[in-house]
Every structure is written in structure tokens, then in C-alpha cells.
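Database export, one record per block. Field names are fixed; values are copied verbatim from the stored entry.
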Amino acid sequence: MASVTSLSDSVQQQLASALSATLPEAAGADPLLRRSDRADYQANGILALAKKAGTNPRELAGQVVSRVATGDELIKEVEVSGPGFLNITVSDRAIVANLAARSADGERLGVPYAEAPGTTVIDYAQPNVAKEMHVGHLRSAVIGDAVVQILEFTGEKVVRRHHIGDWGTQFGMLIQYLDEHPGELDHKGGDGVSGEEAMSNLDRLYKAARKLFDADEEFKTRARRRVVDLQAGEPRTLATWQRFVDESKIYFFSVFEKLDMEVRDEDIVGESGYNDMLHETCRLLEESGVAVRSEGALCVFFDDVKGPDGNPVPLIVQKSDGGFGYAATDLSAIRDRVFHHKADTLLYVVDARQALHFRMVFETARRAGWLNESVTAHQLAFGTILGKDGKPFKTRAGETVKLEGLLDEAVDRATAVVREKAGKVGLSEDEIVENGRYVGVGAVKYADLSTSAVRDYKFDLDQMVSLNGDTSVYLQYAYARIRSILRKAGEARPAAHPELELAPAERALGLHLDQFGETLREIAGSYEPHKLAAYLYQLASALTTFYDQCPVLKADTPEQTENRLFLIDLTARTLHRGMALLGIRTPERL
């Protein structure tokens, strides 16, 4: 079906038309519409236009009002306020009719596709081979997945990339140690191996190899020679390396499954995936003059990047010994994403502490001509997860918190909360376990996504699984409560009645529902999923006010009951869709 124009866009169009008819030189001007406490919307742009035209703003506002059609179709009334603001109230009929069109649009709820969708490559969820995932990996995965879902929903072609750490000197150490101690990995991987077992074996191997590497100079020399063999593609060395990668993937997939995230094997393209491009990347940069040799290394210099001593700090693309650093891999990845995948936009969901590195990488790519006005790159930087004490989140022993254990604890806490309420709704043990998983994982994701990515936030499981406040559990219960009412409605069915007069709480809920498409449009352009979380929380809050003021099954007339069932049904569908875009499930019963 066709997308639905929001009420605010329709009002904006009417005001713009009236404004251009009143002041021809203002054709195409933006009336600057916003939500208002005094009316449904307020237009603030007339003051600036009046000043530019040298006319009295209240007089101009009055002339605009005289050209705006009012009545029962869209705008109920419009009045001049203050120095020249316009307060606009839309009609009840327009609200219900617009929501009816959204309801008829199935799962899309009237949300339009982007006018000019492109191709976005998004780099997120970047674990390291042979290392356990910890709490620091959470934000990249959760934020990245939400951005993927939102962009795809708006019609963007999205190429997912999980740039795993699968290359470097540590693999020479690991390969050499396993070669000399072949029994350390006691299985070959496969479907019968759990993720926990795979990582336990790798972790044990890594610790033993590191201990020997640090203590035995001869082993260290052999390990470094093995790095050269790996980079040269020596078959036996490469086969052992591949085994490490495969073992790690078993573990990665198990953790992502707990996070309720889809990660496909074809989307995992690690550092090793760009090895064949590294020499050419260096050649192109050096031949173009973007990079220069300095003390044997291939470097890119920047006027505004200097060290504490005042000397320039370069981006090192190739080391003096011929080895390649992260910059060479990242620049090669840009070339692949731009020229092979034909990307218009490159997104990197990476820790804010790497901001300088990516700023230098992006500027280097711009100088080389790989990025330009048509192809842009952005780092979606994120802050740190803190403990309740406001310090970086650690275990009591001061160690990094393992992601798998954290998710298990969240699910355990959430299951206890679900079990407390289970008797009232008759949940089976299987439903308690399933809902506990959805609530626990949802709580962790929502706590992350409800905070602006650039900000740090405190990880507090007690608050996250609370039924009160801005939590995913509050939203999930709002959805489940609606589903319960709809089941109890008997023969009454949701049906829109535009002819009815709406109560204030009905109007507020309806106007907020109508903003869903606008909200997604804004988020898709700014990559800020926390704004979707805020929208959904405000929707659930408007629903709570509606419940307090507007009986549904005991409404005054059958038509009013049908209309209110219609409102809450659309609210449930909007909550369900919005939460799904955040990667969070909404159980039917809680």
C-alpha cells in the first residue's frame, strides 16, 4: 500500500501554501512546525520571514490564518499567539482517519520508504579470534544491529560487515604453540561443540602460549618466523590459523544467539579478508603523494595532529620492516566497500577512543579520492559502560566482565521477575523461560539503546529489569497488556470511527502514534536509535494516561469501544514494530 503522510507534514504543506500566497517571496519557506503544549502544533517560522520582508509578524500571521482552510477535514482551528506564532489544532476526524490509513498498511504502518535509498556498509560487532567477548563488545553489536534494522526498514540496501580481529603477531605465537603441543585443542570443531567449550579450549591455549612466549626467547623467535609463514600463505600454517578462526566462530555465534542477533557467516570479513589488497593500497597512496616515506615507514601526515612534543604524529600505513598496521587494513576495506560494494555511506560503530584513528583514516581516503561528496564515511562513536560506582564496569576482582556471563545473569534476573507475575496470567514453565530470555536480553539492549551512543551509562541490572521507569520491561508489559485486553474483548473488534469526538488522552495517544514514520525518518538520517527508544517510551506513557482516563471495554457506546480498541491495537502494533527495530522481542503474555 501507499505510505501515509503524517498530520504534521500535511499541516506543514497547508501552512506553506498559505504563506506563499500571502508573501510570494516566501515560496518554499519552512513554517518551522513543532509540537506544542498549547495546541497540537506551533509554527514559529513567521517571525523570521516577517523580519526579512520588513513587515509586522502578527499582521503577517493574521493574513496567513485567513488563507488556511479550517473545519473538520484537517485543521480544526488556528490562532495567532504571542509575537506572531501560529497555534494549530487538527481535527479529531483527521487524527482517526490518518491512523486508520496507517492501520490498513499492514506491518509498515504507513511508514514511507526513503525517497532516494542508497547502499550503506556498516561495520559493527567486531570480536577477536581466540579471545572471549566482554562487556566492551556489547555496544558495537547492539547499536549496530539496531541501525541495520532501521535502515533496512526505510529501504536502504545494507551490507553488514563484522571486521573480526583474525590477523597479527599473536597468531604466530598460537600456531607455533599448537604445532609443538598438538593435543591442546582436543576436538576439530563442528556442530557438536558448544561455544563455551570452543572458547574454553582457545583461552587455555592462548594463556599457555603467551606464558611460553614471554619466558622462552627461542620459542619467541620461532613464533615470529611463523607470522612470516602465515603472511606468505604457507599451507600448513594457514590451515592451523583457519582452525582457530573456525573454533572462534562457534563461540561468536553462540554469544550472538544469546543476544538474539542474526550474524551470518558471509558477513564476517575480518582483517585477513583484505590481505591481498594491502600492497596495492600502499602503492596507490605513495604514487599519488598522499603517503610519504619517513624513516623507512609509509606515513600520512596531518597539520592538526601533533604529539606532546609538538611534532607531527603520522598515520603509519606500512611499517619500516615492511609489516602492515591497522591503517592499511582499514584503508583497503574502504576501497573494497566503495568500489566493490558501490557504497554511498560507510558506517563504523566503534569505541569513541578510536576517534583519532578513524579521523585520520577517513581524511587519508578523502585525499586519495576514495571518499568524496558522493561517498561519505562516519564513525558512530560510543561511550563506556560503567558500573554502579560510575567507574568502568569490572568484576569485583578488577577483571573485564565477560559478555556471556552478563547476559546469563540478566536472563536469570528477568526470569525471576516474570515468574512473580506468571500465576496471574497462567504462564507455563516453558513460557516463563522463553519470556525470561526475551525480557532479560531486551533489558540489556534497551538500557544501551535508550542512552545516546556517545554518552557513558551505568550498567544496573536491578533497574534494567524494573517494571517502572524507562525500561524495556515497561514497554513489553504495555504491549502484553494491550494483547490481554484484545483477547478479552469478546465479539467487539477494533474499528476506526472518525465521526467520534476524542477525549484529550485519546488525541494525545493518536497524535503520538502518527509521528512514528517521522521519527524513523529522522533516525535513519542521524543514526540515533536512542530517539526510537525515547519515542516508544513516550508512546507507552501516553498509553498509561489513556488507560487512566478512557475505559476501553466499558466505554459509553459500542462505537467508542471499537474506536478505543482500534487505538490500542495500533499502539500494540507500533510498539511491536518499534521494539523489533531495536532488536527486542515483545511477548504476547507477561
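Remark 1: The chain has a mean pLDDT of 93.
Remark 2: The chain has 20 helices and 13 strands.
End of record.
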